[in-house]
Amino acid sequence: MTLNTPCAPRAENEVRIDRYLDRVKHLPPAPTLMIKLLELFRKPEHDLDQIVQVMCQDLAITAELLRRCNRLYFNNQDPVTDVYEAVFRLGFNELHRMTMVLFGLHTMSTGDFAKGVESEPLWWHSLVTAICAGCLARELEETEGTAFTSGLLHDVGKVVLANQEGGKYLQLCEENGIVLCEAEQAAFGFTHAEIGGRLLSRWGVPATVVVPVFCHHQSAWSGPFARLSSIVCLANLLAHELEGSAASKPCELPEAVKALELLKLTPEKLAAMEPTLRSEIERLGPLFAFQG
After folding, report:
1. Across all residues in the chain, what is the average pLDDT?
2. pLDDT at 109
3. I need a labelling partner for 138 at 20 to 30 A (CA). Which of 61, 130, 228, 279 fits?
């Protein structure tokens, strides 16, 4: 899938990324069922029966869905034993989030991170970014589920680079923090955003998710996915701030200024959303936490 967006890599860089991906020994497995579910979730009239049927094709995901629902949603009181009942009690939005999280956990924690990037901190940042992206999308009347999914997968390129480069990539991460993209470009000729977006594209993930992943460190957004891309970029910066790993306030960074302009948000409005963001992270964090 070729993406017509100024954020997508040029043809020669796409070839370089493809060659790199072809050399990676331990790529995350293509989330075939997640892609099917994304297509079903995007339909205006959600067919919950069909969604459940697809989910039930993966017994591990089904079992984990029931376990987490019973432990944290329903507090082990009157537990559910059937996916249909869980879906009925969760509601569509919670089902969407939970399903994407379970597949995202599998994708983002694949491989040996002992010499690369630790799974748990990477997952937590991905989760916080997803929650922030979902809240921003809801506030701005954009598609919450798509923004959440893009935020959740925005750093999947780090999984690829960590598995392939090991200690070399860990050193880059430790030395560069949130300006990591510059070091990646110098070392590999592309960034984790580009290789992550390209991997998702090769898997057949919808462009509504892929483009924001490609663009989450950019500020030249245009086309039909510009607002979603700017939302995920802003959510990533907010997540760094909320985690205490940002070098400065998000609204002070150049890419955030562009995002705020495109979304017609003021720094004051963004600051007013912080209690909601923290509340959602507190509510959803234990439910979606890494348990690997």
Report:
1. 83
2. 67
3. 61
For residue 193, pLDDT beyond 90: yes
Helix (H, G, I), strand (E, B) or coil at 144: helix
Measured CA to CA, the distance from residue 141 to residue 241 in angstroms comes to: 24
* 92 contact partners, CB below 8 Å, separation of at least 6: 46, 48
Do both 46 and 154 map to the same domain? no
Residue 85 identity: E
Identify the pLDDT of residue 39. 85
Give the pLDDT confidence of 41-75 residue by residue, as tens digits: 887 777 778 888 888 888 888 888 888 777 766 66
Buried b (16+ CB within 10 A) or exposed e, 106-130: bbbbbbebeebbebeebbbbbbbbb
Q: Are residues 129 and 261 in the same domain?
A: yes
Q: For residue 42, give its domain range.
A: 29-109
Which residue did the predictor score with more confidence, 25 or 213? 213
Looking at the structure, tell me whether residues 158 and 271 fall in a common domain.
Answer: yes
Our measurement of the distance from residue 231's CA atom to the centroid of its chain's CA atoms, rounded to an integer in Å, reads 12
Spatial distance between the Cα atoms of 97 and 145, rounded to a whole number of angstroms: 7
C-alpha distances (whole Å) from 69 to each of 57, 123, 154, 292 are 19, 20, 25, 17
Please indicate, yes or no, whether residues 147 and 253 belong to a single structural domain of this protein: yes
The answer to whether residue 4 is domain-embedded is no
User: Same domain for 77 and 129?
Assistant: no
Rg (CA), the chain: 18
Report which of 194, 128, 208 is spatially closest to residue 156, judged by C-alpha positions. Answer: 194
Q: How far apart are CA 221 and CA 234, in angstroms?
A: 13
Average of per-residue pLDDT across 93-99: 82
- As to burial, measured by CB atoms within 10 angstroms (0-12 exposed, 13-18 middle, 19+ buried), residue 64 is middle
